Amino acid sequence: MRVLSGIWSGIAVVVFLLIVIGGSITLTAMTSTSVNLSSALADPYLIGVIRFTIGQAVLSTVISVSLALIVTRALARRSKFPGRGLLISLMGLPVVMPVIVAIFGITAVFGKSGLLNQLLSLFGVEQSFTVYGLTGILLAHTFFNLPLTIRLLLPAWESIPRENWRLASMLGMSSRQLFRLLEWPSISDRLPGICLIVFLLCFTSFAVVLTLGGGPSATTIEVAIYQALRYDFELSQAALLALLQLSLCTVAALGLLKWFRVFAATSGRKVDARDRPDIHSTTGKAIDVFCIGICAIFLLLPITMIFYSGIRGPIYKVISDPILWLASARSLIIAILATVISMLLAMGLIKSVRFLREKTKQQKGAELALTIGSMTVAIPPMVIGTGFFLIALRTHTLTHATLIMIALVNAVMVLPYLLRSISPPYIQAGEQYYKLCRHLGLSGLQRFRLIDWPIIRKPTAFAVGLGGALSFGDMGVAALFDTDGQVTLPVMLYHQLGAYQFNEASVTAVFLLLLCVSFFWAINQIIGR
Length: 529
What we know:
By secondary structure, the chain is mainly alpha-helical. The protein has helices at residues 2-31, 37-41, 44-77, 84-90, 93-96, 99-110, 115-122, 134-158, 162-171, 175-188, 191-203, 207-212, 221-230, 235-258, 282-312, 315-319, 322-358, 363-374, 381-395, 402-440, 444-472, 476-480, 489-498, 502-528. It is globular, with a radius of gyration of 24 Å. Helix 11 packs antiparallel against helix 14.
C-alpha cells in the first residue's frame, strides 16, 4: 500500500499517456480496416512515398552527422578563440526557431531570388540547383540537425581526461592516431544514439517537406497523411499511412532503447586542448578555422536574412492586421497549455521514479518509467494528430476543441525534453539529501520547496522554456486542424508563403521568431531567476 501511495502520480501519468496515445492509435487502426492492405501496400505511389521518406532521412542523417563530426573536432581542437562560447550558444537557436521561419531564411539565401543566386549572378554564374525538392529538404534538415548534433557530440571530447592528452603528447601521436585511439572510442558509444535521434527527426519532418517538397516525387509519409486528410478527405488512407509510419518509427525506436542515455547535450564548457600534440600545425589551424567559419556562415546567414528581409518589409501593414494578433493569441494559448500539461506529466513521473530509487531500490523499474515517458519522442506527432482529428470529426468538436487537442499533442511531444533535463538533478538531489531530510523530518511540499526546487529550477526553466517555444512555433498538427480559418501564427506564415506574399511573410517571420525567443526568455526568467 505504501508503494502504491508513492508511485500513484507516475501510474496516473502512464495511464494518461496510454489513453491519449493508445486511444488515438486504436481509433486510427479501426478507421484503416476498410482499406485493402495488400493492394494499398502494392500501390506505386505509396511505395514511392516510403522509399523517399526513408531515403531523405538516411541522407539527411549522414550529411548532418558527418559534417558535425568535422566541425565538432575543430571546435574541440580550438578551445580558445574569441566568440567560441557565443557560437556554441547560437547553435541552440535553430532548435528553438520555428521550422517555417527557418525555411523562410533558407529560401532567402538559397532560393531562386536568394542571396546566393544574386552573388553568383555578379560573376555570370547561374545557380545550378533549386531549393525545392530533395536539395532543399537536405539543406533544411542539415540547418536544424547540424547544430543539434554538434551539441550532442561535444561532451564526447569533454569527457576525455587531460591525462590521456598528455600521454598522447609524450608518445608523439599524429592527428590521425589521436582520432583513432582517443577520440573515436569516446564518440563511438554516443554516435549510434545520435544517428537514431537525427534519423527520427528527419523521418517525422513535416513542415520542411510540406514547404520545400516540390511535388508528389518529394513527399514523405507525414505530408501524405496531411494531404489525405485535408485535400482528399480519405480517412481510411490517412489512418493506414499513420499506422505505417508508427510501425517504421517503432522499429527505429527499438534500436534507440539501447542508446537512450546519450540525450545530454553540451553545457558549452571549453574542452582543454592545451596538451593536444596536433594543435600547433599550421595546416590543422587553417582547416579548423575554415570548418568553423563555414559552419557559422551556414547557420547564421539564414537567420540574418530573416531579420534583414523583415526590416525591409511592410511592418505597419502586418502589425496592424488583427488576424496577426488573433493568430498570436492562439499560438500563445497552445504554448501555455502544452507547457503546463507537460510540466505536470514530467513532475508526476519523476516523483515516482525517485520514490522507486530511494524507498524500494527498484532501479530497473525507475529506468523503465523514464523510458516509457521518453519514448514518445519516437511517436510521430502526425500519428496522434490523426487520431485526434478522427475523434473530433466523430464527436463534432473540430471547431471547439482544436486548441486543446493541439496542446495535448505538443505536451506529449515535448515530454522527453523535460524528463531528460529535470530527472538527473532531481534524482541526484534525492540521493544526496535523503538521509538529511529524514533526520530533519522534511517531506512532501516542504522538502520540495527547501531542497529540490533550488537544485532543479534552472534545468526546469530551460526545459520548460524550450518546450514552450517548440509548441509556440509548431506547424504540423496546427496545420492539420486548420479547417475553419482560425490559424496559428506559423500556419499564417505558411499561408502567406503559399500565396507568394513574401514581403508580408518576411515581417511575420521576424515577429514569430521574436515571440518564440521572448517566450523562451520569459519562462527562463520567471522560473529560473
